[in-house]
Amino acid sequence: GKGRLATIVHGPADSLAVDFDTELADATYLNMDFGSLQGRISLVDDQNVLRFDAVRGRSGETPYVVSGPIDFRGEGSLGLDVTFPGGRVEDFLAIFRPLTRDLSWFPQSIRGRLEAKGRVHGGLGLAQLIVDTRISGSDWTFFGERFRSVRFSGGYASGGYTMRDLEARKRSGAITGGISFDSKGRFDWKFLSRDFTLRDLDAMLRL
Predict the structure, then answer these.
(1) Torsion angle of the four alpha carbons 179, 64, 93, 195, in this order, in degrees rounded to the nearest 10
(2) How far apart, in Å, do the first and last CA atoms of the chain sit?
(3) Residues 94, 100 contacting (CB under 8 angstroms)
(4) Which whole number is the average pLDDT over 73-78?
(5) Which residues is 178 bridged to in the sheet?
(6) Mean pLDDT on 81-102
(7) Rounded CA separation 176/193 (Å)
(8) Neighbours of 8 (CB within 10 A)
(9) Alpha helices in the chain (DSSP H)
(10) pLDDT per residue as tens digits for the range 164-200
């Protein structure tokens, strides 16, 4: 990213700690666009661990908070907890767009309100990275259809994507199910409709 960085060095000579007070724009990591970041990131020199202390981020108009370590010892690992207290699903998806823009099936056009919690963990490279999220939303639109509430778990691991435990509610009916897409381009999906009527089909109501 680019922006301002204030550095504070403290502690004994054999275990120096370095605190970075950051104000960054266009922050990126592992080919993901994190938007702006503001807050304290700390490094303990003899531990080679970079720690995020409730660092505030913003993707588009959507705020989020990141906490946890990135450990550079050995092969390296990370364990970041990310919370989106409220915002837009399109801003959330924008973080992952560099990873998903070439996936023709990925629902880039979804719009609506969102709350989410996630954990970014595993190794420091994309091949070892794991992203787990739990998402809930309201008033989502997709291909002209409106959903009054949506909730599901989703993630990324070993080059593959999953969405599971989906429940997308319309006026009276709901769609449930899930989908997975692995690094070899193989799909596995199952969706079911429940209690649907013609009033649930926005395309029909527009006729």
Answers:
(1) 50
(2) 48
(3) no
(4) 91
(5) 190
(6) 91
(7) 6
(8) 11
(9) 89-100, 202-205
(10) 999 999 988 999 999 999 888 898 999 998 888 877 7
Q: Are 42 and 58 in contact (CB under 8 A)?
A: no
The amino acid occupying position 48 is N
Classify residue 177 as exposed, middle or buried by CB count within 10 Å of its CB (0-12, 13-18, 19+): middle
What would you report as the CA-atom Rg of the chain, rounded to the nearest whole angstrom?
A: 20
Tokens of 122: 């595993």
User: C-alpha dihedral over 176, 145, 95, 119, to 10 degrees?
Assistant: -20
In whole angstroms, give the CA distance from residue 155 to residue 161. Answer: 6
State pTM to two decimals: 0.85
- The whole-angstrom separation of Cα 121 and Cα 76 is 11
Whole-number Å distance between alpha carbons of 70 and 47: 11
What's residue 203's pLDDT? 56
Residue type, 182: D
Answer yes or no: is pLDDT of 204 > 70.
Answer: no
Decide: 41 and 52 in contact? Cβ < 8 Å. yes
Residues 6+ apart with CB under 8 A from 152: 135, 163, 164, 165, 166, 167, 168, 178
